[in-house]
Amino acid sequence: MAKYQxxxxxxxxxxxxxxxxxxxxxxxxxxxxxxxxxxxxxxRSRASELHIDVTxxxxxxxxxxxxxxxxxxxxxxxxxxxxxxESIAGKLVVSLAAGIRIPNMEAVTSARVMRAMTNTPSAIAxxxxxxxxxxxxxxxxxxxxxxxxGAIGVIVDVRDDQIDAVTALAGSGPAFIYxxxxxxxxxxxxxxxxxxxxxxxxxxxxxxxxxLALASGKSPDELRREVATPGGTTAAGLAAMEKLGxxxxxxxxxxxATERGREMSREFL
Length: 269
Fold this sequence. Notes:
Layout (H helix, E strand, L loop, with lengths): L3 E6 L3 H12 L8 E4 L3 H11 L2 E3 L2 H7 E6 L3 H11 L7 E4 L6 H5 L5 E6 L9 E7 L5 H12 L2 E5 L5 H9 L1 H18 L4 H22 L3 H8 L5 H12 L1 H22 L2
Parallel strand pairs: 1-2, 1-4, 2-3, 4-5, 5-6, 7-8
Antiparallel strand pairs: 6-7
Helix pairs in contact: 7-12, 8-9
């Protein structure tokens, strides 16, 4: 019988963020989670920080956990599934990896495969996650995965072939936003603020704007018009952004990341 409610193969940044979030919201106790991690230093760090059980053996996770999450690099996903073999037969296996399509995973395992693309803000229960079912996915599987990621953020249901876009927007997106925050803070510094004050204001402003966008139900254009007045400071700033193509640059980042995800799906077979 399964000893652990959740098992994670790989305990890197993304998997670690999911664990932190689940523990933060008390989704399950720490002793209900088992993770495997080949890196000894990271293994000790996760066990010490999160108080979960961590092993060097993937097979132990496969044998002792009810639901198994694959949190390794994309190139390793299919080899890991092949390695686990019959130990995950008929079990729910959820891949957190970019670029590895469900048909390719189902071809090497008889597990009930799903995909969940989430992001590092899951660590503070502010994750953005999309889930895609496989051909063997059951309704209880969907409900479990929705309950897990719904506990640490917002979730949307997508098709497997849409995960590349989700990877770019939600998975890679935090890095794009950190670049925007950095640029905003740098602008404040150039305008006369000290670096610490500029960064604090930029991060909090981004947080507040995002939460208002979610809570208000208004479109970004409506919210933007509420801030900008003709001939005012906001209008001057927006004009500078348009001149330099800032919005197009961000959209291009999402498209470039999406295309890279599609390339990966062809590389890792």
